C-alpha cells in the first residue's frame, strides 16, 4: 500500500494540523484518513485538492503514520 504525504497549501492558524503522512491504497482514501484526524481546521481542508496537496511517498499498510502541528503561525 502507498504512503502519502499531505500538506496544506495555505497559511494556517497556530495549533492546526499542517501536514500528515498516511498509508492508503489511493489518494481518495489517504485524504479520508487525514480527514478523520482533522481538528479545528476542519475536515474539508484535507479532502480538497485546492487546500491540500497529496503526493505518494512510499509503500506500507493503511494507517496514519505521522501528523505535524506547529505552535507558531505557519
What does this protein structure show overall?
The chain has two helices and four strands. The protein has 74 residues and is an alpha+beta fold. It has one domain. Strands 3-1-2-4 form a four-stranded antiparallel beta sheet.
Task: Label this structure with key terms.
74 residues, alpha+beta, 2 helices
How would you sum up this structure in a few lines?
The protein contains 2 helices and 4 strands, in the order E-E-H-H-E-E.
**Helix/sheet category:** alpha+beta
Report the order of strands and helices. EEHHEE
Q: Which word captures the global form?
A: globular
Strand percentage: 35-45%
Strand order in the sheet with the most strands: 3-1-2-4
Roughly how many Å is the radius of gyration? 11 Å
Unreliably modeled segments: none
Distance between the termini: 30 Å
Total strand count, please? 4
* Count of separate structural domains: 1
Percent of residues in helices: 10-25%
How confident overall, as mean pLDDT?
A: 80
The total count of helices amounts to 2
Biggest pleated sheet: 4 strands, antiparallel
Amino acid at each position: 500500500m502507498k504512503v502519502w504525504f499531505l500538506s496544506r497549501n495555505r497559511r494556517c492558524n497556530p495549533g492546526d494540523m499542517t501536514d500528515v503522512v498516511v498509508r492508503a491504497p489511493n489518494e481518495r482514501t489517504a485524504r479520508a484518513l487525514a480527514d478523520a484526524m482533522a481538528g479545528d481546521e476542519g475536515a474539508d481542508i484535507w479532502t480538497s485538492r485546492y487546500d491540500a496537496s497529496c503526493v505518494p511517498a512510499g509503500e506500507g499498510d493503511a494507517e496514519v503514520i505521522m501528523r505535524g502541528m506547529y505552535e507558531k503561525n505557519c
